[in-house]
Structures are given as structure tokens and as C-alpha cells.
Amino acid sequence: MVTTVDRAGPPVFLVSPEDLVTDSVTLSGPEGRHASAVRRLRVGERADVSDGAGTLASCVVSGVSKDTVDLTVRSVSAVPRAEPRITVVQALPKGDRGELAVEIMTEVGVDTVVAWQAERCVVRWEGERGTRALAKWRSTAREASKQARRAWLPVVAGPAGLDDVLRLVSGAACAVVLEAAATVPLSRLALPSEGEIVLVVGPEGGIGAGERAAFSAAGGIEARLGPTVLRTSTAGAAAAAVLMSGSGRW
Q: Which of 47, 78, 109 is the last residue before a domain boundary?
């Protein structure tokens, strides 16, 4: 007989830091409704909570109502930030593919996602549209963090212009620009064990010649993922996985 083992662990919910200073936590609002109505938690079941800033508490359900769930804290642990930090500069994709990119990169473990208004981006984050789009990316990262049981929420920022990205590239311990025509495979790069790795992912139309020259002058190294060409919404996650493995985080 084959026994199936659930390795996913108990669900994780996000709370404010001040909620983790006592031996009990009450999930309310959207988190409480999700725990009660969607996850249907019952008294005695495990449920963990995090403040998204490195603190993770192991809890047991002690009470359930329509919109709230009471938890008893059994233990609290501080999870240090992983090194090296990985920042992905993501050119804006069309439609909801940006949210897909953020979701997968969050699950992989990326620390920061920066939305980049690249030269060849069709999408433009301007005014209220940009505010709404950034809010969607951040909400996606929050939900994906809970699914991935992350103790640290990723930072989601933007939209960034070329000058903003150049500052990230020049200040990084290692900066990589994904380019399908590059001669160097990403898997062959020597990566630092600490500091920040910045990964630049261009739009569907590719990174412009002027942008590529600017990144090179700022210290960026062009590298390719492999023999196939990925969409911008999946290239960042695939490349981040390579960086996680090559840097020792995986």
C-alpha cells in the first residue's frame, strides 16, 4: 500500500506585527473570512501566521465563528532573510500576464519585483491605471506568499524608468540582463553568496539597443536561459530558479 504524505504544511495567514506579541491571535476581516469560510478551519487544526517581515508563529485553532478564527500560539520563530537577495526587474507584460509573473516569482522566492516601463513595452502604467496595476501586483504577491508559506513578503515596486533600473544594476553585487542572443548561459555565471543579485527581464519585443548598451556600461552581464525563448511573464521565474540554485539558496 502507498501512503500519501502531505508536505504542504498548515495554511499561513498574514497578520500585523503587533498581533504576534501575545499567546493568542484572532484572524478577522478578509483573513478571518478566508480561514473560516474558504479553508473551513476547525478547532484543534493547525494554522500558522506571519507578519510578512520574518516572524512565523505556529498556532492551533481554538475557536471559529462566521468571520473570525481564534488561534492559540504554540511557538514563534524568526526567519532570517535569505542571502543573496534576488531582485527581478520585470518589463511590463500585456494583460494579466504581469500578475502571473509576480505569482510565480513569489513562489520561487524572489525578494523584490520591480515593474519596469521598458522602451518597447506596449503597456503603459500612467496615472490611476498604474496605481491599480501596482496594487494588483502587490495583492498577487501577498496571496502567493501565503500559498508558498513565506515568512517574508516580497517587495513589489514601480513603475521604474531606465535611470531607476540603472541605479539598481550599478549597485548590485551581480547584475544579469536576460538576452536570448547572449553567448553566456545563465547557469555558467559565477554568483555571489551575499549581497544583491539584480535580474533584468525585457519585454516581448526585447530590450532596446540603447537600453542594452546602458546596462552594459553600468556593469550588467548579458546571459541567456537556454535554447528556447520564454515569454517575459515566465522568463523571470525560470531565471530566478537558476539563480536560486547557482547561489546556494536552493
A: 78
